[in-house]
Design goal:
single chain, alpha/beta, Aspartate Aminotransferase, domain 2, Aspartate Aminotransferase, domain 1, 7-stranded mixed beta sheet, 12 helices, 14 strands, about 40% helix, about 15% strand, globular, binds pyridoxal-5'-phosphate
Length: about 375
């Protein structure tokens, strides 16, 4: 079976991990700081705080902004459940909004309609790595005193108007979990400006204030102060070592995935029963490849591909249709129509050319035999 995703790992990652083993310092330490610095330079960000998952990144981002009980956060329903769990975990209320069916990204006009006096943040998700309309989002956030917290779990390396996602904006959260474009094994990062970075740094490490420690440096270097609600969310040196090796290969990962997306697009644009996503592939670090299958044939295609040894999936089931989030459900006709059409096809940097061809042939065969 050709998987939907798989990480691209080599001896380079093992060598970096071995160095960490040899150093004897496995936890939060110099390798994490070095990785943060590399990511900061890569994105041209003000500051980067590395954490142990994308979910942790989103959680401490919202918490550091003071979002809590009764506050509302506008989020597309069509996203990974992590985006929504972090909102409810803080006692805040997810307000689900619509997407644009051509990009699966947030529909900014619909989001605007859902603003109330309790709205504290909007969480756009850069679907498949394709950037949302950040100009509109940031100016609308500024006008209404609302934070834009980007779920950029899919978008590490993507460009928006020539700038990297995470290199501008309010707060941007990345995931480096095993299937993301860049992996640390598990991991994530928050891109923040200097105003917020101290708070995010404390919260990732149990609220411990390092400045308090520095005040006593040289005399009482055992001293620490717990300054705020925090979590044990820091990245470890082991995970950072994997990320450092991955970051050097990232341009190759992106190029390879772009070329597979182009090959898919070229073939699938000829099929009438398919609607392609609208994205500028040259600007995007594609995370996954999603198409819309029209005429209620999505599930049939999934079954057909299974018989051909081609993996596929549905990303994602809208969160307002999940039992735990049902009480936040609202009228979302576009989201409900679109999710019945979406299918995720295999896309990963190490994908062999004959596997790409097999996916293309299998999809073609389905539409030829079904039409
Ligand atoms: C992967 C992902 C997350 C969570 O990241 P983890 O590192 O798995 O915790 C959040 N949002 C989206 C859209 C994701 O794809």
């Amino acid at each position: 079976m050709i998987p939907i995703q798989r990480p691209s790992l080599g001896v380079e990652e093992l060598e970096e991990v071995k160095k960490v083993f040899d150093s004897g310092w496995l936890g939060l330490g110099n390798v994490v700081y070095e990785f943060e610095d590399m990511v900061k330079r890569y994105l041209d960000a003000e500051d980067i705080v590395a954490v142990n998952s994308g979910t942790s990144a989103l959680h401490i981002a919202l918490d550091s902004l003071g979002i809590g009980s009764g506050d509302e956060v506008i989020v597309p329903s069509l996203t990974f459940c992590a985006s929504v769990q972090v909102i409810t975990s803080l006692g805040a209320i997810p307000v689900f909004c619509e997407i644009d069916p051509l990009t699966l990204n947030i529909n900014v006009d619909d989001a605007k309609k859902r603003i109330t006096s309790r709205t504290k943040a909007v969480m756009p998700v850069h679907y498949c790595g394709n950037p949302c309309d950040m100009d509109s989002l940031l100016s609308f956030g500024k006008e209404n005193n609302i934070f834009i917290v980007e779920d950029a779990a899919h978008a590490f390396g993507s460009l928006y108007k020539g700038k990297k996602i995470g290199g501008f904006g309010n707060v941007t959260c990345f995931s480096f979990d095993p299937i993301k474009t860049l992996t640390c094994g598990e991991g994530g990062a928050v891109s923040v400006n200097h105003d917020l970075s101290e708070m995010v740094r404390r919260k990732r490490n149990l609220g411990i204030d390092k400045d308090a420690y520095r005040r006593y440096e040289g005399t009482q270097n055992w001293f620490y102060e717990v300054a705020t609600q925090g979590y044990r969310y820091h990245m470890s040196n082991i995970n950072a070592a994997i990320g450092m090796a991955q970051l050097k290969k990232l341009p190759f990962f992106i190029k390879r995935k772009q070329s597979i997306v182009k090959a898919y697009n070229e073939q699938f644009s000829k099929i009438r029963g398919i609607s392609l996503l609208n994205w500028n592939v040259d600007e995007v670090a594609p995370f996954s490849y999603i198409i819309r299958v029209l005429d209620n044939r999505r599930d049939l295609l999934i079954e057909f591909l299974k018989t051909r040894g081609v993996g596929s999936g549905v990303h994602y089931i809208p969160n307002h249709m999940q039992p735990f989030f049902a009480k936040y459900a609202s009228w979302l006709p576009v989201t409900e129509a679109v999710w019945r059409e979406i299918i995720t096809l295999p896309l990963y940097a190490d994908m062999k050319e004959n596997d790409v061809q097999k996916v293309i042939d299998s999809v073609n065969d389905f539409f030829v035999s079904e039409c």
